[in-house]
């Protein structure tokens, strides 16, 4: 698993676009992680 802190340089704690969020998840999977432990914050409903 990866610790996903949900930081995006252009959006601080929220992905600027849905495509940015999708890319983040796809890249995480591509490098071999199969789960994410979320940092202590409320997550955008798109991520869930």
Number of helices: 1
Q: Largest sheet at a glance? A: 2 strands, parallel
Category by helix and strand content: alpha+beta
The strand line-up of the biggest sheet is: 1-2
Question: What is the number of domains?
Answer: 1
Using the alpha-carbon principal axes, give the shape.
Answer: globular
Uncertain segments: none
Order of H and E elements: EHE
Give the termini distance in whole angstroms: 16 Å
Q: Could you tell me the number of beta strands? A: 2
What percentage of residues falls in helices of 4 or more residues?
25-40%
Please give a structural write-up.
- The chain is 27% helix and 12% strand.
- By secondary structure, the chain is of the alpha+beta class.
- Strands 1-2 form a two-stranded parallel sheet.
- The chain has one helix at residues 18-30; strands spanning 2-4, 36-38.
- The radius of gyration is 10 Å and the shape is globular.
- It has one domain.
Provide key terms for this protein.
48 residues; alpha+beta; two-stranded parallel sheet; 12% strand; globular
Topology, please?
Blueprint: E1 2-4, H1 18-30, E2 36-38
Parallel strand pairs: 1-2
Task: State the gist of this model.
The chain is an alpha+beta fold and 48 residues long. Helices cover 27% and strands 12% of the residues.
